[in-house]
Specification:
Elements: H1 4-13, H2 22-36, H3 45-79, E1 106-112, H4 114-119, E2 121-132, E3 147-149, E4 158-162, E5 167-171, E6 180-182, E7 193-204, E8 213-216, E9 232-238, E10 245-247, E11 250-258, H5 259-264, E12 266-272, E13 275-281, E14 290-294, E15 303-311, H6 318-331, H7 339-353
Parallel strand pairs: 1-9, 11-15
Antiparallel strand pairs: 2-7, 3-6, 4-5, 8-9, 10-11, 12-13, 14-15
Helix pairs in contact: 1-3, 2-3
Bound molecules: zinc ion (2 copies).
The site of one zinc ion (ZN) has 7 residues, from loops.
Length: about 350
């Protein structure tokens, strides 16, 4: 009996022995669910967790019980010459209730700033979703013992199947051979779930990128008839930064520097994701070179690439202009003789020289 511990834990959480009947399981869950349902506890995260834990225990205990019943029924059906086919619909939450289905996924778009995506953030989401009915706590009936005779099999627990020429007796799919069914809940029509709003604290991990989807298991729509809930898909939308451009785990940044720094090198303060750092610029830096700052990317992975936007002086004093012209001349660089730069007197000099 390898499975026994798991099963026993579920029963124990409900304060029951492993041999409890469905009625006892329903009753025990109902008492605890009343106490911990988020609707009755101001939607605190503890109550949500506790209720989720109880719901799982309830499902596991019911599953364990139904599985035992199913095996017993199958055995009895086989002994009596019954067929057991068609009892469970494909895609249904087989082990629980014949009409139980998995809940569908819920999608939520979460806009984040550039910095929030880099560092991670907790966001409280308000989600419109099908939730376990607060009247029956997802059980589909308001009282655990409000049975009436099964209308499909008239209480016999079995039905005739076939096309007239070949009839066989099968276990009734509505009551699972019990001959009776529970009265449907007035709050949810027996589905065990109803439309509502739930709050969920989503912990977005550091380093998520625009377009990423985070899947939170079990936080989607509630399943019908106590079936497993669907997942919550959080679609992350990340805003832009004025300072940084991101590609995967790499960060690109452009910083202003005087054009002489490209020649002589030097030290410059550069913003990074972890704050300002002093970067040494090597002398003789070619235009448009990307300097790599290792380990300065997202989450310590990747790098920051730095490009210097070289500032060229536009307002020069006569002395500064002369220094630059002298430099250009020694290098043999052309010096355009523009009136705006040199003035009319220089133009005059040029003519006189000729
Ligand atoms: Zn209900
Ligand atoms: Zn029936």
């Amino acid at each position: 009996m390898k499975k026994a511990p798991v099963k026993n834990t579920a029963f124990r959480k409900l304060g029951l022995d492993a041999g409890a009947t469905t009625q006892q399981i329903r009753q025990a869950f109902r008492v605890l669910a009343k106490k911990y349902h988020p609707d009755r506890n101001n939607h605190t995260s503890q109550s949500a967790e506790k209720f989720k834990d109880l719901s799982i225990a309830y499902r596991e205990a019911m599953t364990a019980h139904k599985e035992m019943t199913r095996q017993k029924l199958e055995k009895n059906a086989a002994a009596a010459g019954f067929s057991f086919s068609g009892l469970f619909r494909p895609g249904a939450d087989k082990c629980f209730h014949p009409l139980a289905t998995h809940g569908k996924k819920v999608e939520a778009d979460v806009p984040l700033t550039f910095e929030e995506a880099i560092r991670g953030v907790s966001v409280e989401l308000k989600i419109q979703a099908l939730m376990p009915c607060p009247k029956c706590f997802g059980q589909g009936s308001e009282k655990p013992d409000d049975f009436f005779g099964c209308p499909k099999c008239q209480g016999s627990g079995s039905i005739l199947e076939g096309d007239g020429s070949f009839l066989s007796r099968a276990v009734c799919p509505k009551c699972l051979g019990e001959g009776r069914v529970l009265k449907k809940c007035g709050g949810c029509g027996g589905e065990g779930r109803s439309e509502g709003e739930k709050r969920f604290m989503a912990h977005i991990p550091a380093g998520v990128d625009d377009g990423n989807t985070i899947t939170i298991p079990g936080e989607g729509h509630a399943g019908a008839m106590g079936g497993r809930p669907g997942d919550l898909h959080i679609n992350v939308r990340v805003g832009e930064s004025k300072m940084f451009l991101r590609k995967g785990n790499d960060i690109f940044h452009e910083t202003q520097a005087p054009f002489t720094m490209a020649v002589f090198g030097g030290k410059i303060v550069v913003p990074t994701l972890d704050g300002d750092v002093l970067v040494t610029i090597p002398p003789g830096l070619r235009a448009n070179t990307l300097l790599r700052l290792n380990g300065r990317g997202v989450n310590g992975k990747g790098s920051q690439f730095l490009r210097l936007a070289l500032e060229v002086p536009t307002q020069l004093t006569a002395k500064e202009k002369k220094i630059l012209e002298d430099f250009a001349r020694t290098k043999g660089y052309p010096i355009p003789e523009q009136p705006s730069l040199g003035g009319w007197d220089r133009l005059g000099r040029l003519f006189r020289r000729g």
